[in-house]
Specification:
Blueprint lengths: L2 H25 L34 E2 L10 E2 L10 E2 L15 E7 L8 E3 L2 E8 L4 E8 L5 E8 L14 E3 L2 E5 L4 E6 L5 E6 H5 L13 E3 L2 E4 L8 E4 L5 E4 L14 E5 L2 E8 L2 E6 L5 E5 L13 E4 L2 E6 L4 E10 L2 E10 L12 E3 L2 E6 L6 E5 L5 E9 L5 E4 L2 E5 L4 E6 L7 E6 L12 E3 L2 E5 L3 E6 L5
């Protein structure tokens, strides 16, 4: 090569290298994330290699000075006694509140999360996360005054991501079962807090921790705990007392666990469990875990959180957010052969729900439509037609339920509203700010004897909604 060519090419090459180096320097340390911000879901926990880690050892129960309340009543698991988010204990609720809202009976501080409460035997159970001890912590409080009765923990590192805890425990008899953010399922003695057994679903079944942690709430059915690892086995039944596995349903394709919970239902004389996995919906026989039917006609988008709703007569209502919309499907059984078909589908502008599960009552479906800019409460008939909406009243992604003919709704910012649960129109009755400066008040509520338990990211409160005798 001639010297003149070298004189020309060398500066050019050095200039190009300089541009590359400058670009690298300008972008170093500036991670570009094109994923949309999701409510309560800003990161992806890494469960890689978790299958090689032995199950954590509980640290041991710590007894505190709280005492169980003598109040009767039970809200034993996610969505209440009948899995439908309807309180049916006959307790009358007040239709008017003082100017400062319903009376606050007690409040407690919790670690960051959205875990709701289960209530039984005068005790309130919450699976908390202790960010100092780096431990899932089962906590038992008194329904009477909120004083802590006991706590027990097992170590697990969970990175804060709009909260750590996500689920509602399930309690039956002397056992309470929790489902941790990284898929640790534990059973605790309700009186002493001793850990009776613990299963790591990642280690045992190669379950994948869902993006933004587990949201599945455990189901207790008689003497069994029903869980959905949705991996080597789709669903499993575990003996409540011992933790021994009773049956395992078969693996379904490459489906993975979602944030939704299992729906127990009975149709055509067959009891089954219905679960929305990442690739569709499955129904398994409650007796032995045999897969009765499956469909890919309903798949949520990005994060399936709502649980299916049993409408009756084999109809099941599905909903999800992030553009998924909603769908009504119907089961059929002929000569032992099962099938499921779509009845109608709703586009997101008609109805979708990112986090909460709609409530069915007397031929109508009530739910908060969480499409961006919407967030209205809507009432629909069983053909998906909108009967009414709440207009300017918006509820964000907060929880809702029904009791004593009233819809009880908590918005993201701690505003509590009660409205008549009627198809005749949106009829709000009372409204009050019950959590000041609330942040992400998304946890499912619990109601026992007129005592409403709710929370935001770091505070749990008990309100008295009962009517004055």
């Amino acid at each position: 090569m001639k010297k003149g060519s070298v004189d020309i090419l060398l500066p050019s090459a050095l200039g190009a290298l300089g541009c590359i180096a400058l670009a690298f320097w300008l972008t170093a340390g500036r991670a570009v994330n094109l994923e949309p911000r999701l409510p309560g879901k800003d990161g992806v926990p890494d469960s890689a290699g978790a299958a090689d880690v032995p199950p954590p050892e509980p640290t041991g129960a710590v007894r505190l000075d709280g005492q169980p309340s003598s109040l009767p009543g039970s809200w034993p698991w996610f969505r209440g006694p009948a899995f439908n988010a309807i309180a049916q204990d006959g307790v009358s609720l007040a239709r008017q509140w003082p100017t400062d809202g319903p009376k606050v009976l007690w409040n407690v501080e919790l670690g960051p999360g959205h875990a709701g409460a289960a209530v039984d035997g005068g005790r309130v159970f919450v699976l908390d996360y202790d960010p100092v001890a780096l431990a899932d912590t089962m906590r038992c409080f008194s329904l009477e005054d909120g004083r802590e009765i006991w706590r027990n923990s097992y170590p697990v590192e969970v990175v804060e991501n709009h909260g750590m805890s996500r689920t509602v425990p399930a309690v039956s008899g002397d056992c309470v079962v929790s489902f941790g953010p990284k898929c640790h399922v534990a059973c605790w003695n309700v009186e002493t807090g001793d850990c009776l057994w613990l299963i790591d679903l990642v280690q045992k079944y190669a379950a994948k921790v869902p993006n933004w942690y587990a949201g599945q709430c455990p189901v207790i059915d008689g003497d069994r705990v029903i869980l959905a690892p949705c991996a080597r086995a789709c669903l499993i039944a575990v003996d409540l007392k011992s933790g021994d596995v009773i049956w395992e349903s078969e693996k379904i394709s490459n489906w993975e666990m979602t944030h939704g919970s299992i729906l127990p239902m009975t149709f055509a004389g067959k009891k089954m469990y219905v679960y929305c996995g990442s690739g569709g919906v499955v129904g398994v026989d409650a007796a032995d875990g045999k897969v009765l039917w499956e469909t890919k006609e309903w798949v949520g988008n990005m994060a399936t959180c709502p649980t299916p709703v049993d409408i009756g007569d084999g109809r099941i209502f599905f909903s999800s957010g992030y553009g998924a919309g909603a769908k009504m499907m119907r089961l059929a059984e002929t000569g032992g052969a099962w099938s499921i078909e779509s009845l109608f589908e709703l586009k997101p502008k008609k109805f979708e729900s990112e986090q909460q599960t709609p409530v069915y009552l007397d031929g109508h479906i009530y739910g908060v439509r969480t499409k961006s800019g919407g967030e209205q409460l809507v009432c629909m008939d069983l053909e998906g037609n909108e009967i009414w909406n709440s207009g300017r009243d918006k509820f964000g992604r907060g929880p809702y339920m029904i009791a004593d003919g009233l819809l009880i709704l908590l918005d993201d910012e701690g505003m509590l509203t009660i409205a008549e649960a009627t198809a005749e129109g949106y009829r709000p009755v009372a409204q009050a700010q019950v959590i000041e400066d609330a942040h992400d008040a998304w946890a499912p509520m619990a109601l026992v004897e007129g005592r409403l338990i709710l929370r935001d990211l770091t505070r749990m409160k008990c309100l008295n909604l009962a009517a004055t005798p």
